[in-house]
Structure prediction request, 281 residues.
Amino acid sequence: MTLVPFAAQRAFFRLELAHALRSRWVLFTGVVYLLVFGAFIWLGLRESSVLGFTGLSRVVLNVSNAVVIVLPLVALVATAQSVVSSRTSGFFELFLSQPCRRSDWFVAVLASRVLVIVGPLAILLTGTLIASAFMDEPALLPLVTRSLLVTIALTWAFVGVGLWLSSIARTSERATVYVLFAWLVTTALHDFGLIALLLRFKLLPAVVFALAASNPAEAGRLAILTGIDPELSVLGPVGFWIATTLGPKLTLLVGIGWPTALGAAAVAAAIAHLNRADLVG
Prediction:
């Protein structure tokens, strides 16, 4: 006899969320986002003596672009040890004796990690939206909504990738190496490789966009930029091609759809590996 899936998932979710709270992941992510927000507000106030305070919309835009870089690392580190540590600590030996499915535990881990990473950022963005109502500030709702949707999609993608890497790693050390390499590929190595191609070859704007958007973090950054500058003039010919061919709506769809699809594929691969793997090692 097995537990009802929803009841099992709820019980595991409470367990994993309590574990995340004990390990202070919520506090860590909250402090990271708060420091990023505070840094850009401080920079805006420093500029105010000359230019006047540049407004919360610029703060939200800069924070969103910074979070697009920081969030993948936070998501990967938060999930790197989830599966492999449960295997090596003996948790799975107890888990296998319970009337529940492996996928129930996995869904709970996935949901708790997404909540821990997205929750503090959603609170800060909501607070910014409320603060803008008391200031002489243009409506921030479209930009905040766009930023939140993109960050949720990126969180889903990299939490899925992190759980998949954790499921295939045999030791905690390998899991750490895997996620750090994944983060380097999606931040530094991808950008360096693209710049090297542009210096060596003359590529069409459509090809440059496809290569850049293949990195979910870059796709998310482009989706956020189109919310504040639909023309994307800072990107030159590539920005002109994106603005005239895709437009803000389709660019947003790419920025949300591609990370979501990547996360779904990684989650499916992780669940498949978890179902057929030996959980006791």
Residues 48-54 have pLDDT under 50 and may be disordered. Residues 55 and 135 are 9 Å apart (CA to CA).
